[in-house]
Design brief:
The protein contains 14 helices and 15 strands. Strand 2 and strand 3 form a beta hairpin. The structure holds 4'-deoxy-4'-aminopyridoxal-5'-phosphate.
Length: 440
């Protein structure tokens, strides 16, 4: 029997009324979404305010890796909230345990962490660490990168919007091209393992833009907001070597790539990367707001006491969530499930792209898969409107997906890692119908 059921076109009557109220009082400035008002969710299954039931390929933007409202996480957060909600910089038992547990879950060289509240804050903290540790100013990042919306984090991002809309960004950040295997007119993806052509160009970018040696580089293991773009194998490793050879700190933004998303606990494991700084967010609390920055002890040693804090960072509820999420990862086979079912999904979606005129590229690792829609597979012209149709049609058939990408033409496949084979089958069948429906 099907898990999903949607009666009538969306939004349903209650959903329609609520959306109107919402946009009367809260600014309507969020991104494009299916017109659904969520009421509750458990695991991979979402129920809306009209009683429609969906499968979820969003994880609430790659947050609910352990599944929505995992009972162990809910119970831990509830329990902590009855004792103490916040105590700013003071110690609390949950924070101490969370720090120990997080560090033990990280690769051994990352032996110290610090808790904050959002991914953007973690980016800002990493930027401060890179500058303080090296005594240098400038930071390299990439075109298409997304590291958050606060001023400094957006300045290190490389999506077109912020640059055009808000004027000059934070001084001291320069951006280089990110190698994109699907769109590679310059041949940046060629020449593994040294990617000579790319790194010669990178040296020119740095020379032409910097006032002195760079403090560091910040990079996502795959570009999330740009459209789930995975660089060619070996490029990140080469980038790390390039940075080290220049005395820079290498920061890996694992805000969305960690906690099993790519089929490994940490995305850095795929190429054995040893970043100097790692930023962590989203799934670390799997719905409870918390983020962290992790680094070897000697990197944090450049800070004096009082240099880093956040009003709600390390609060007992968030810290209890960090521990509960790690418990769940220890008890359930989520990382292996991500690798196994992600491979199944990618294969079926790649087969679908063979049959579709518009599904130009299917790429991913574990349970993070991008579906790039184009109007013509030869020219690769981005198909933004078709992508929006996919989102709405999928929701109407019981599947929630989000879109993103530099050209707004990538559908993101990122279900909670607890997804079951039956849920994989049912959700894929919906996506197959939706994509083949575009041919009509
Ligand atoms: N880095 C990456 C790679 C992200 O995907 C995001 C959020 N999408 C952020 C940083 C910023 O996180 P937050 O929205 O929690 O500030």
């Amino acid at each position: 029997m099907a898990i999903t059921h949607v009666h009538g076109p969306l939004p349903g009557p209650r959903g329609r009324a609520l959306l109107e109220t919402w946009h009367t009082y809260e600014a309507d400035v969020t991104g494009f979404q299916a017109p659904v008002v969520w009421e509750s969710a458990r695991g991979c299954v979402v129920t809306d305010v009209d009683g429609n039931v969906y499968l979820d390929w969003t994880s609430g933007v790659l947050v609910a890796n352990v599944g929505h409202c995992h009972p162990h996480l809910v119970q831990a957060a509830q329990q902590a909230s009855t004792q103490l909600l916040n105590n700013y910089e003071c110690a609390n038992v949950q924070r101490i345990e969370a720090a120990q547990r997080l560090v033990r879950a990280l690769p051994p060289h990352l032996d110290t962490c610090f808790f904050l509240t959002t991914g953007s804050e973690a980016t800002e903290a990493a930027a401060r660490l890179m500058r303080r540790r090296t005594g240098r100013q400038e930071i390299l990042s990439f075109i298409g990168a997304f590291h958050g919306r606060t001023y400094g984090a957006a300045g290190m991002g490389g999506l077109a919007g912020p640059k055009k809309l808000y004027g000059a960004s934070l001084p001291g950040s320069i951006r280089a091209p990110f190698p994109n295997p699907y769109r590679d007119p310059e041949g940046w993806c060629a020449g593994a393992p040294d990617f000579r052509r790319y790194f010669d160009h990178l040296d020119l970018v740095v020379e032409g833009n910097c006032s002195g040696p760079l403090a560091g580089v910040i990079v996502e293991p795959y570009q999330g907001a740009a459209g789930f773009i995975f660089p060619p194998a070996g490029w990140l490793k080469r980038l790390q070597e390039w940075a080290r050879a220049r005395g820079m700190l290498f920061t890996l933004d694992e805000v969305q790539a960690s906690y099993g998303r790519t089929g490994r606990m940490w995305a850095m494991e795929h190429e054995g990367l040893t970043p100097d700084i790692v930023t962590i967010g989203k799934a670390i609390g799997s719905g409870v707001p918390v983020s962290a920055v992790a680094a070897p002890r000697d990197v944090f040693a450049c800070l004096q006491k009082g240099e880093m804090s956040s009003t709600l960072g390390g609060n007992p509820v968030a810290s209890a969530a960090v521990c509960a999420v790690l418990d769940i990862f220890e008890r359930e086979d989520l990382v292996a499930n991500s690798a196994r079912l992600g491979a199944v999904m990618k294969e079926r979606l790649q087969a679908l792209s063979q049959r579709s005129r518009y599904l130009g590229d299917v790429r991913g690792l574990g349970l993070v898969i991008g579906l790039e829609f184009v109007t013509d597979k030869g020219t690769k012209e981005p198909a933004k409107e078709l992508t929006r149709r996919v989102i709405v049609d999928a929701a109407n058939q019981g599947l929630l997906v989000g879109s993103l990408g530099m050209y707004g033409n990538v559908v993101r496949v990122a279900p909670p890692l607890v997804i079951t084979p039956a849920e994989v089958d049912e959700s894929l069948a919906i996506m197959e119908r939706v994509v083949m429906g575009l041919e009509d």
